[in-house]
């Protein structure tokens, strides 16, 4: 049975393109079906991650903001 992994990326405090770059690096290490959760404070990340997921065919499972921290959960295609 294949075990899927979950990764966490803390990109709080980074400005564009830092969070997307950190996400890209982690996704390169992940396998298909793995989940990557990333937390950022750059408000432009919401738009960036939606576009990036569409472009790369990865699935954006959730995108939420709380107390200035944006959390996105992405499933690798």
Shape: globular
The low-pLDDT segments are: none
How much is the average pLDDT?
95
- Residues in helix, %: 25-40%
How far the N terminus sits from the C terminus, by CA atoms, comes to 19 Å
% residues in beta strands: 35-45%
- From N to C, what is the helix and strand string? EHEHEE
Main-sheet strand order equals 1-2-4-3
Task: Give the radius of gyration.
Answer: 12 Å
Largest sheet, strands/sense/barrel? 4 strands, mixed
The DSSP helix count reads 2
Helix/strand-derived category reads alpha+beta
The overall strand count is 4
Write the layout of secondary structure elements.
Elements: E1 6-11, H1 18-29, E2 35-40, H2 45-56, E3 59-66, E4 69-75
Labels describing this entry:
about 80 residues; globular; alpha+beta; four-stranded mixed β-sheet; 2 helices; 4 strands; about 30% helix; about 35% strand
3D structure, described in words:
The chain has about 80 residues and is an alpha+beta fold. The protein contains two helices and four strands, in the order E-H-E-H-E-E. It has helices at about 20-30, 45-55; strands at about 5-10, 35-40, 60-65, 70-75. Strands 1-2-4-3 form a four-stranded mixed sheet, covered by helices on one side. The chain is globular and about 40 Å long.
Short description:
The chain is an alpha+beta fold.
